[in-house]
Write a structure and sequence with these properties.
With 76 residues, this protein is α+β, with helices and mostly antiparallel strands. The protein has 3 helices and 4 strands; from the N terminus they run E-H-E-H-E-E-H. Helix content is 39%, strand content 22%. The model has no long low-confidence stretch (mean pLDDT 96).
Length: 76
């Protein structure tokens, strides 16, 4: 499962969501600007406040790192 921790104003978050949509990868989006509990969870798993943070089957990717995301989703 792919979970994206994001905010509505994050350019990289929107690019990431479009990228996954183009690749037909389903994902769950969590808007951390509206949910303090999820924000705290994101910080706990990533060690930082910046978005996007992507959780791919328990593997954490910080930022829109295409190479790492493709590798974890076996798109390479």
């Amino acid at each position: 499962m792919v979970i994206i921790y994001s905010t509505p104003t994050c350019v990289y978050c929107n690019s990431l969501k479009q990228y996954l949509t183009d690749k037909n990868i389903a994902y769950k989006e969590i808007d951390v600007s509206q949910n303090e509990q999820e924000l705290e969870k994101m910080v706990a798993i990533s060690g930082q406040m910046g978005v996007p943070v992507v959780d791919i089957d328990g593997n954490i990717v910080i930022g829109f790192d295409k190479v790492k995301i493709d590798e974890l989703l076996k798109l390479t």
